[in-house]
Design goal:
The protein is an alpha+beta fold. The protein has two domains: 4-119, LON domain-like (Archaeosine Trna-guanine Transglycosylase, Chain: A, domain 4); 129-203, LON domain-like fold (Orthogonal Bundle), CATH 1.10.4060. 32% of the residues lie in helices and 33% in strands. It has helices at residues 29-41, 132-142, 145-148, 159-169, 174-182, 186-203; strands at residues 4-12, 21-26, 45-52, 64-65, 68-79, 85-102, 108-119. Strands 1-3-5-6-7 form a five-stranded mixed beta barrel. Strand 5 and strand 6 form a beta hairpin. The longest helix has 18 residues, at 186-203. It comes from Pseudohongiella spirulinae. This is Peptidase S16. InterPro entries: Lon_prtase_N, Lon_prtase_N_sf, PUA-like_sf. Residues 6-201 form the Lon N-terminal domain.
């Protein structure tokens, strides 16, 4: 999984992990075209956290993204009550941006290298008793109606999937979630999650 590939990017102020789902409202023409092409060809695009600029195009501004993101594919779409196109995407595998540039329509394109870890289908890592409390916490988080409505599936006996879901769902800043995404070691990610969780419990988050 080390070869490079050219993909389109969908910059957001959110961080997506493999197996996670994210609802999007689409109205800019560059993204309507991207969604249409993705549906026709059954391909995906990269979700990256913005480091500069807004989610929508504004005159005189540019979008810059963090260099680690997640390749996502569309799993559902519909017209929303407000008339906009709504799509739900699911994360598949992590990548690192090598080069990034805008097309004439301002759609960001990137040459990416697939990460050696953090992709759907990896061999599960057995969850030890010392982390069962995290599995119970994740059960509670995934029972929230907004999360439950996304239809995500997660193996709570797999430490890797547990870390992915907790990293997405904990009430911490996107910068912390991005830092967790950039880690390649599941045990290190779990340790960082427990540190963040302790801060949330002590100070109520930030």
């Amino acid at each position: 999984m080390s070869e490079q590939e050219l993909i389109a990017l969908f910059p957001l102020r959110s961080v997506l992990f493999p197996g996670g789902r994210l609802p999007l409202q689409v109205f800019e023409q560059r993204y309507l075209d991207l969604i249409s092409q993705s549906l026709r060809s059954d391909t995906g695009f990269g979700i990256c956290l913005l480091s500069q600029g807004g989610e929508t195009a504004s005159p005189g501004t540019t979008q810059q993204v963090h260099r680690t993101g997640t390749y996502a594919k569309i799993v559902d779409w519909d017209q929303l009550p407000n008339g906009l196109l709504g799509v739900t995407v699911e994360g598949h595998k992590k990548f690192r941006v090598q080069e990034c540039w805008p097309r004439e329509n301002r759609l960001l394109m990137a040459s990416v290298e697939w990460a050696p870890t953090d992709y759907l289908g990896e061999t599960p890592i057995a969850l030890g008793e010392e982390h069962e409390h995290l599995a119970e916490l994740l059960k509670d988080l995934m029972a929230h109606p907004l999360v439950e409505g996304l239809g995500m599936e997660s193996d709570l006996t797999d430490k890797r999937q547990l870390a992915w879901r907790l990293a997405e769902l904990l009430p911490v800043p996107a910068s912390d979630k991005q830092r967790l995404l950039e880690l390649d070691d599941t045990d290190e990610r779990i340790r960082e999650i427990e540190t963040l969780l302790a801060a949330v419990m002590r100070y109520g988050g930030s």
